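Deviations from the work plan: none for this task. Representative record:
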Amino acid sequence: MPANMLPPLTPAERRHKRIRDTILQAAEKTFAQEGEEGLSIRRLAEEVDYSPAALYKYFASKQDLVDALKESFFERLLDALDALPEQTDNYYAHIHEGLSIYIRTALEKPYHYRAAFSALPSAQVPLPALSDDSVKTRAFTHLLARVHQGVEQGVFRQDLCILDAAKFVWASCHGLVILMTHMPNFEEAYRDGKTLSRPKFIAQHIDFILKGLAP
Amino acid sequence: MPANMLPPLTPAERRHKRIRDTILQAAEKTFAQEGEEGLSIRRLAEEVDYSPAALYKYFASKQDLVDALKESFFERLLDALDALPEQTDNYYAHIHEGLSIYIRTALEKPYHYRAAFSALPSAQVPLPALSDDSVKTRAFTHLLARVHQGVEQGVFRQDLCILDAAKFVWASCHGLVILMTHMPNFEEAYRDGKTLSRPKFIAQHIDFILKGLAP
DNA sequence: TCAAAAAGTAAACAGTGTTTATTTTAATTC
DNA sequence: GAATTAAAATAAACACTGTTTACTTTTTGA
């Protein structure tokens, strides 16, 4: 039987989902502006006209709610990456644009990005296996494939460990996003006449990264 | 009069400082293992045999206490960097080692590093001016000088905006540290036969960064 | 219609950082 | 040395937080 043959939802289930989405939507607004710490179950309950305890009929915990918000960000990120056409004649421009999309999407939702990719060590949620094609790993497997392609096409060094090279690319993009969004004044600080504009700065950052892998 | 001619401390002041240090020391232990969220004023008070309110005679707030912990990490980081000899015949090896020290020191105290360099947007503490030689900016000004040197010596491209180049280097190192410390399983995941060991992985990461700036 | 399941809530529990009023202790001055 | 002043320390309260329990109301499916 087909995997996407879901059982039809009962009215009760549809209602449940609808209310859940309403809560999620209100939570999203606060989370985007104030992050996890600014999001309070009690305040959220008041906003959607429920008692705090009622929310626990829709989410097992605050963490569960935040996880749902993170999940929707992952989907947003993947949608943005999927919008990029698969094949192009210009490999360099293609991977450059892919990384640019990653960074720009992350910059749009700083709190989501941080929550998604900077889990605290105490929360020991291991990375899923590569075989798993959950929304969480797809972005990285995508990057792995791109780096592999770059090696094959001779744009990158032949002796690269693709895994380690992909981690270098990811880390360098990640660091930029985190500093830009969570380091007050990172962009504005210390500017002079030669300093680049934001888009050019990002583009150059990616250029530096890719050049690091060149033969 | 000399700047370091501090007025002599009275016995009361010395006692105050001593107790403050005791509290700080106990806080340090918990913070290093559990971070800001794991550090509770009430639990800390119990550990040092004081009432919670008493701690407010030594620190204005929890944030103030954490700031003191961050400050000591900055000093630790700068001390490690200062231990590196100033001049060497091999520029590349020199900057490589500097970045390696930065990363390794950060990896030793993940929570300190994160707290120090990943402030939330809500906490709008601007970066101090470059002229300010506070402990916070010295590491970055140090890096700026190194990059400048690299351009002068022809190891890096001549047309670089030193500021933007330094930010690239910083961001790339920063991202690696954050992913290694706060992304569960980042290092272990997806390993195969070709995957490098941790020290070699870090060294290669730095190589990639520096190559990105090469002519 | 009626039993069962789901939805919703008030109140309590166990925490958190912080403030206020009050007392105890230590230091300084007469 | 005694009196005064300043610092240290605290108990109790305040205003929050996420979460659970016991209970009531509403909705659903047979």
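DSSP finds eight helices and no strands in chain B.
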